[in-house]
Structure to design on (310 residues):
């Protein structure tokens, strides 16, 4: 049952709404006197509850016996409505679980990451009531891991770094370092990593580069992505085979596929391809040479550098 002091402490503001101006001055905060006052409903229960879902929620039990609730949000662009939703998540999690929440926002571009990490205050400027400060992981602060030795130290971190740097012009060496390490990993480790990166790159140009790197050695990986690449190569070979004979057609189809992959890699990395290089690649019919050039295309600083050791 609500006590009389409880009632008195808040009901007086209903009868004397101007009281807030006097109280605020006593507390050293200057609020302008209200020009009108409307008594609002006190029931904050949502009549039609909205579905609110955080992307990922984890309970982290720590060595110091202070568990945390980690909410992870993937943010693709600036959204002025998001900070209010994130503040709601934090308040709800604290109320429901009585554990301290922390918000991690993961981004793929600098502008969104910088926007997301800016503290947001709620309440009047004279006395902000809440301050939202998410942790942000993005291309502005995630490491550029291009060394396979560094990838081996923390494969999960390298995977996230590759995803967050999906729009980076240097994404080629990053992805190449990952595939180099994955060749020595068991299927249970490498299969999820390859799928995570494939999904994380989405439809960005780097996705074509990743598919190509995975397909360079088709024997080291089998998954839906592998099957899709293999079927594309098979279809190319069959199309050529119907015109000029299956055996010869498959060989030419594979050669054309490798040549197109090399040019796709350069396009994804933003490297200009001079016409002599383009003609040499397209006119090559030796699959081994093309495969070798494709591997070098992922890390070469210029288009003609793929022929350096020929």
């Amino acid at each position: 049952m609500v006590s009389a002091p409880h009632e008195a402490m808040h009901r007086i503001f209903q009868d004397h709404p101007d009281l807030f101006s006097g109280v605020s001055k006593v507390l050293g905060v200057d609020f302008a006197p209200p020009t009108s006052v409307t008594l609002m409903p006190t029931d904050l229960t949502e009549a039609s509850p909205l579905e609110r879902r955080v992307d990922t929620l984890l309970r982290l039990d720590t060595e110091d016996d202070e568990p945390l609730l980690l909410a992870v949000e993937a943010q693709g662009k600036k959204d002025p409505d998001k900070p209010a939703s994130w503040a709601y998540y934090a308040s709800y999690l604290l109320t429901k679980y009585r554990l301290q929440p922390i918000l991690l926002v993961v981004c793929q571009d600098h502008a969104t990451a910088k926007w997301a990490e800016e503290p947001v205050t709620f309440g009047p400027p004279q006395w902000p009531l809440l301050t939202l400060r998410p942790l942000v992981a993005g291309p502005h602060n995630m490491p550029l891991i291009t060394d396979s030795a560094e990838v081996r130290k923390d494969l999960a971190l390298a995977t996230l770094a590759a995803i967050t740097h999906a729009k980076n012009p240097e994404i080629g060496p990053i992805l190449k370092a990952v595939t180099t390490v994955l060749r020595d990993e068991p299927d249970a480790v490498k299969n999820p990593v390859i799928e995570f990166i494939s999904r994380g790159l989405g439809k960005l140009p780097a996705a074509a580069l990743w598919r190509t790197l995975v397909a360079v050695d088709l024997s080291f990986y089998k998954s839906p992505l592998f099957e899709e690449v293999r079927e594309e190569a098979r279809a190319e070979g069959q199309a050529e085979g119907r015109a000029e004979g299956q055996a010869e057609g498959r060989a030419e189809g594979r050669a054309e596929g490798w040549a197109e992959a090399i040019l796709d890699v350069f396009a994804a990395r933003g490297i200009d391809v001079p016409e002599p290089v383009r003609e040499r690649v397209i006119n090559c019919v030796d699959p081994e040479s093309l495969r070798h050039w494709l591997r070098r295309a992922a890390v070469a600083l210029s288009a003609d550098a793929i022929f350096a050791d020929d």
